UniProtKB/TrEMBL annotation, chain B:
Protein name: ABC transporter ATP-binding protein
Similarity section: Belongs to the ABC transporter superfamily.
Gene3D superfamilies: P-loop containing nucleotide triphosphate hydrolases
Domain of life: Bacteria
ATP-binding is among the record's keywords: yes
Cleaved signal peptide residues: none
Keywords: ATP-binding, Nucleotide-binding, Transport
InterPro entries assigned: AAA+_ATPase (IPR003593), ABC_transporter-like_ATP-bd (IPR003439), P-loop_NTPase (IPR027417)
Database matches in Pfam families: ABC_tran
Region entry Disordered, spans: 298-332
TM annotation in the entry: none
GO function terms (MF aspect): ATP binding
Domain ABC transporter stretches: 2-227
């Protein structure tokens, strides 16, 4: 520390020397939304939580699907009016937890680790980041759920040849419809993750959103609450999901493709809110 | 060139950054100095458009940060926090950043090599030591080979070898004609690396000066005398009209005094001296004086907020004349 203050003149400070003339040899090519997609794809495939949530999702869908098929087959239970597709419902219902978790983690884990600052420094457009995350997550969840529900439905059809053969429309709703619905539910979780910025909190909220209406409805015995109770039963997420199997827990409420439009509307609003929040709040 | 104009940030009632205006000029290392909590990190976050200013503006080469489509090619930043995903490998952490800015993937290996992390490229970032984390952060800053580089307290938590490496890296980067904006709470660190100095305290600009000027103005040299014949010494100095200062610990200081002349003067009057020494005030002290009124966190009884302890031979109560009344305590 005796002579720490002697300046070593830098070459560019020489009189007449050019200032700030550094130019990178790397060519500047305009980054597009496609580059943001590639970046988000790298992110989602390079963390273990993705492998875990999707792995458990696949195990649940396949495992519960096979199990229900085998149980029904060996017990000689009568499927009644229902198609075999309904047997896929239980796996999907439990699988929502995995999709919710992955949806939340896609954005909230960046807040947990501090990565979000690096991400937004590299790509300051909040809209672009949110859109890229949404597209990558949605496609991934949709492809996996649709592929697995299709596979499970095919296996169950083979296991239970005597059950009623589902129509093409029923097939489409129980596979692509369910895939779209679950992926949209995951996207809603992503939006909630962006709003809450905390993984555990967001996951808890989303599981509450899925389960609470049903649980609340179960405790509403008083006749004066009849209307609320019916609404909760009809519009709870498990009920909406069951509509894709031509079945509804309450016997009324949204049917056909209605649940998809409902959740799409809610998700659109939540994503809009997430965008406004990302755009205006400090990181 | 980075330009700040009236940049202000409030968190509730707390003013973290208070009407800061300065420019970071190209081609030199600009040091951004201030005690802990002065608002350095907040300013840097506003530069990167991570935090929204309460008022004021920041321009990078005349543009707002959000207008940059591939910002990594203009400006690279190392923020103080570990800003990577621990579950991802070093390589993948950098790859996703490179992809978002259309930087070729080959560049990832290049920067990992530059910072010496090639061997752990495929290891998860969460297993990294503080120093390795800093190196990874620097690698991400270098990814786009940008003209402007910003480092927030880059030497924090590094071992001496790492500190040495970062200093040399910054010099090398500046030597290539880049703009370097580096923050620190240590004057000694700035004195080693910076050409230009911006000092803030409690969010306010305290100095915006070239390092050379700062050193010239603040490195006071003086001669220190100590004598058992104190009264006589003062008389002799007064008779010869030598201006002097009395320190709290019984020593006498003579600004810009010539040590030989003072020795001969003492001999002529047959004065016993216990000390006759040339001294140089440290820049660290100048910095502490400058920010004394604006130190955010300080331990009671300590005289050095964040800085190294003063050398033992320095009197506790000494103050340079231009800094106020002599016998007053330091006010820390
Ligand atoms: N997100 C925040 N919320 C509230 N106060 C904050 C926040 N970030 C920083 N501050 C406060 O602003 C001041 C400046 O902090 P900071 O910029 O981190 O200082 P430095 O980097 O110079 O040590 C501190 O008093 C700090 O407590
Ligand atoms: Mg800081």
């Amino acid at each position: 520390m005796s002579t720490p203050y002697q300046q070593q003149p830098h070459p560019q400070q020489a009189p007449g020397g050019p200032l700030g003339t550094y130019t990178s040899p790397i060519a500047v090519r305009r980054a597009t939304f496609g580059d943001a997609l590639a970046s988000e794809w790298t992110k989602i495939r390079s963390v273990r939580s993705t492998m875990w949530t999707l792995g458990v999702l696949i195990v649940l869908l396949l495992g519960l699907g096979l199990l229900t098929g085998i149980v029904v087959r060996s017990s000689d239970a009568h499927m009644g009016d229902n198609s075999v597709l309904l047997l896929g419902f239980y796996g999907v219902l439990l699988g929502t937890i995995c999709v919710i978790t992955l949806g939340v983690l896609t954005i909230a884990s960046e807040y947990g680790t501090g990565m979000i600052r690096t991400t937004l420094t590299a790509c300051p457009s909040r809209g672009r980041i949110l859109a890229a995350k949404s597209v990558v997550f949605f496609l991934l969840a949709f492809v996996i759920v649709t592929a697995m529900t299709t596979l499970v439905a095919a296996i169950q059809s083979a296991l239970l040849p005597d059950a009623r053969t589902p129509s093409g429309g029923e097939w489409l709703r129980a596979t692509v419809g369910v895939g779209l619905y679950i992926a949209m539910l995951g996207l809603l979780s992503l939006a909630v993750g962006a709003l809450i910025r905390h993984s555990a909190g967001s996951i808890t909220i989303m599981i509450g959103v899925v389960l609470l209406p049903l649980v609340l409805a179960l405790f509403m015995f008083t006749p004066s609450l009849e209307g609320v109770r019916n609404f909760l039963l009809e519009y709870s997420i498990p009920s909406q999901l069951s509509a894709f199997y031509g079945e509804s827990i309450s016997g009324s409420g949204p049917a056909g493709w209605d649940p998809l439009w409902i959740i799409t509307g809610i998700t659109a609003v939540a994503l809009g809110g997430a965008f406004l929040s990302l755009n205006s709040r400090d990181v | 060139m980075i330009e700040l104009e009236g940049l202000t940030k409030r968190y509730g009632s707390k003013v973290a950054v208070d009407h800061l205006s300065f420019q970071v000029k190209p081609g030199v290392v600009t040091g951004f100095l201030g005690p802990n909590g002065a608002g350095k990190s907040t300013t840097m976050r506003m530069l990167l458009d991570l935090d929204n200013p309460t008022s004021g503006t920041v321009r990078i080469d005349g543009r707002h940060y959000r207008e940059l489509a591939e910002p990594l090619k203009y400006i690279g930043a190392l923020l103080d926090a570990k800003a990577m995903h621990g579950g991802r490998t070093a390589y993948n952490n950098l790859l996703c950043l490179a992809e978002s800015n259309r930087i070729p993937a080959a560049r990832v290996s290049e920067v990992l090599d530059t910072v010496g992390l090639s061997a752990v490229a495929k290891k998860k970032a969460k297993g990294f030591s503080l120093g390795m984390g800093q190196r990874l952060g620097i690698a991400s800053a270098l990814l786009g080979d940008p003209e402007i580089l910003m480092f927030d307290e880059p030497v924090n938590g590094l071992d001496p070898e790492g500190i040495h490496w970062i200093r040399n890296l910054m010099k090398q980067l500046a030597g290539e004609g880049r703009t370097i904006f580096v923050s620190s709470h240590l004057m000694s660190e700035m004195a080693l690396t910076a050409d230009h100095l911006i000092v803030i305290g409690q969010g306010r600009l305290l100095a915006d000066t070239s390092m050379a000027d700062f050193i010239r103005q603040n490195s006071r040299s003086f001669v220190r005398l100590r004598s058992p014949q104190w009264e006589r010494l003062l008389d002799v100095l007064n008779q010869n009209s030598v201006p002097f200062l009395q320190t709290g610990d019984g020593a006498i200081e003579i600004d810009n005094g010539r040590i030989e002349a003072l020795g001969e003067l003492a001999a002529r009057h047959q004065l016993v001296l216990h000390e006759l020494s040339g001294q140089q005030a440290s820049l660290e002290e100048a910095f502490m004086q400058m920010t004394a009124g604006s130190v955010e966190y300080h331990a009671h009884g300590a005289t050095t907020p964040g800085g190294p302890p003063p050398p033992p031979d320095r009197g506790a109560g000494r103050q340079a004349p231009n800094w106020g009344a002599h016998d007053q305590g330091r006010g820390v």
